[in-house]
Amino acid sequence: MTHAPLADILLFTGARRRTMAADLALVVAGSILVALCAKVQLPMWPAPMTLQPFAVLLVGAALGMRRGAAAMAVYLMEGAAGLPVFAGPVAGIGYFAGPSAGYLFAFPIAAAVVGALCEMGMGRRMATAAVAMAVGQAIILGGGFIWLALQAGVTAAFFEGVLKYLPGDVLKIALAATAMPWAWRLVGDQRK
Hints:
- With 192 residues, this protein is an all-alpha fold.
- The protein is 70% helix and 2% strand.
- The protein has helices spanning 6-10, 15-38, 52-80, 101-119, 126-152, 154-161, 166-187, and strands at 41-42, 49-50.
- The chain has a two-stranded antiparallel sheet.
- Helix 2 crosses helix 3, helix 3 crosses helix 5 and helix 5 (126-152) crosses helix 7.
- Residues 6-10 have low confidence and may be disordered.
């Protein structure tokens, strides 16, 4: 049995540094995928319908709970810093006061839950992965609903912020569940 020298452990050299670098690269790549999917949109009110939820669900499933949540946190920090990663034409901290903020705040939670469910075995089959992703999508819609209900009332939030997005969300869940095996091959299987 061989042991890594203490200096390698403390200084994150060797294999640990390579693992950390790979994790960081995957987290940044996940945030970039969400940013790209934000630009694929159908204008709607209160928030445009985008492919962001597809990316959030896929990143959570492919990267797992911790890295998936980290990718979404990085994405939100990129937007808060002013990078043009959100669906709207502007970014910055003020974007978090807009109508889509509740959906955005739910992204890290949704990615973490989907990642955890897939790590626990729900990612082994496309049907159960789709269920895990539906849970994640419900979290995203729930975040949007709560935020909009505080601004526009419960009825308006339900009809304008949840119900009208459901058909597109079902399609995004199906696409993400279908793309999941490809994503695992790309980043490494999380089902172990």
